[in-house]
Amino acid sequence: MSENIALIGGGRIGEALLGGLVAAGREPASLTVAEPHEGRGGELADRYGARVVTTVGEAVDGADLVVIAVKPDVVGAILPEIASALRPGAVVASVAAGVPTTTYEAALPDGTPVVRVMPNTAMLVGRSMSGISAGRDAAEADVALVRGVMEAVGQALVVPEAKLDALTALSGSGPAYVFLVAEAMIDAGVDLGLTRDQASTLATHTIAGAGALMVETSTSPTELRAAVTSPGGTTAAAIRTLEKNGLRPAFYDATRACAERSAELGKLS
Predict the structure, then answer these.
(1) Which of 126, 166, 206, 254 is 20 to 30 A removed from 263 (C-alpha atoms)?
(2) 174-266, superfamily in CATH?
(3) In this predicted model, what pLDDT tens digit does every residue of 134-178 receive, in sequence order?
(4) What angle do CA 3, 75, 62 make, to 5 degrees?
(5) Is 244's pLDDT higher than 60?
(6) Is 118 in contact with 167 (CB distance < 8 Å)?
(7) Where would I find the H helices in 192-216?
(8) Percent of the chain whose pLDDT exceeds 70
(9) Domain coordinates in residue numbering, the chain
(10) 127 burial class (0-12, 13-18, 19+ CB within 10 angstroms)?
(11) Please, which pLDDT band fits residue 218 given cuts at 50, 70 and 90?
(12) Quick one: which of 24, 11, 110, 109 has its CA closest to 69?
């Protein structure tokens, strides 16, 4: 845990990583954040004790791992500065959605290990499910280094980059599907006569509890659903209606649309 890590970007994702690393035991002195807005940088320095600088080059200089946590449309503008300051052997990881490893490999010094990461918004509460893919020159040790960083804010799964669009469709965009289901449940509860506050409490805690059951037990979602569904009972009536109205095909279509759009955005990078 002695690597010097540079976080490029002090926004919500950068702060989530910074906070997760400090909470996981990383020495704040080993963490540098590049944040051009001095007010925001001061907040991060005060809150986490990390070194905060205003330029990308200052942050990258001497770093063992550089994590790019900026919006995708900013990546092209900062790569030359990263390339000029990067020390030989340093690993570059990116959480910028849709930007393939080839974009980084073309702009960085030959042989630079590049690792692409697809987190999700739950990293803000330390519960991200991140996908990790190795670029052309990234060795197992480089991937392990990045995985250790991402596990400070949740779980991580290593997949080939060719599978990252499919992963995006499930875990990257997945929280939005759950939020939409929660919205629908809340609206349905209001329609049944509950107050919006009551319906919101019931729906959100039900979803959180169901998620915990899936994660913390060895029981499959199918078995868990069956255990709640008594023959001829209330849940069976609800499940039958959801299936009749195309819930399962809707998820097939939605995830395919998401994966295809992710692939399209990658080609535009």
Answers:
(1) 126
(2) ProC C-terminal domain-like (1.10.3730.10)
(3) 999 999 999 999 999 999 999 999 999 999 999 999 999 999 999
(4) 25
(5) yes
(6) yes
(7) 196-216
(8) 99
(9) 5-159, 174-266
(10) middle
(11) confident
(12) 11
Residue (of 73, 52, 46, 40) closest to 8 by Cα position? 52
Residue in this structure with the two tokens 């790019």, named with its chain if needed: 68
Strands 154-158 and 128-134: parallel
Query: What is 5-159's CATH topology?
Result: Rossmann fold (3.40.50)
Q: What is the mean pLDDT of the chain?
A: 96
Residue 172 pLDDT: 95
- The closest of 151, 100, 146 to 123, measured between CA atoms, is 151
User: 176: left (phi > 0), else alpha (psi -120 to 50), else beta?
Assistant: alpha
| Closest alpha carbon to 145 in 23, 254, 5 | 5
Q: Identify the pLDDT of residue 168.
A: 95
Inter-residue contact 95 to 115 (CB < 8 Å): no
